[in-house]
Specification:
The chain is mainly α. It has helices at 5-11, 15-28, 32-35, 42-57, 62-69, 73-84, 87-100. The relative contact order is 0.17.
C-alpha cells in the first residue's frame, strides 16, 4: 500500500528540507506528494529539480538530499547541474529557497 502523506512527511528528517519541499510545491502548483513522487512530466521534474537545488544551497549533502526525496544521490547531482545551467530554473530555485526560509525574494 502507498505510504500516507503523514508517513512521507515523517520520512523527511530535516525541517528545512520539509519547508523547501512545501515551498516548491506551492510555487509550482503541485502537492507535496508530487514533488516527492516518481512522476517525471517536465513541469513536475522542473519543480522537483528546483527543490533539490534549493536543498543543495542549504549545504545538505547529495546523499542527505537523496534520502529525503527517496532518490539516488546521482539523480540529485544531475538535477543540480541541470538547474545551474538554466537561468529560469536557477531563479525559481532561489525563489523556492527564499520562500522556504521566510525571506522576501529580491
Amino acid at each position: 500500500a502507498p505510504a500516507s502523506p503523514a508517513a512521507k512527511a515523517r520520512a523527511i528528517p530535516n525541517g528545512r528540507i520539509v519547508a523547501i519541499v512545501a515551498a516548491a510545491a506551492d510555487r509550482f502548483g503541485f502537492h507535496v506528494d508530487h514533488i516527492l513522487g516518481r512522476r517525471r512530466t517536465r513541469s513536475l521534474a522542473d519543480a522537483r529539480a528546483c527543490a533539490l537545488f534549493a536543498c543543495r544551497l542549504e549545504r545538505f549533502s547529495y546523499p542527505e538530499i537523496g534520502a529525503a526525496f527517496r532518490k539516488d544521490h546521482t539523480t540529485v547531482m544531475h538535477a543540480v547541474a541541470r538547474v545551474a545551467t538554466d537561468a529560469r530554473l536557477l531563479a525559481e530555485a532561489h525563489a523556492v529557497r527564499d520562500a522556504a526560509l521566510g525571506r522576501v525574494a529580491a
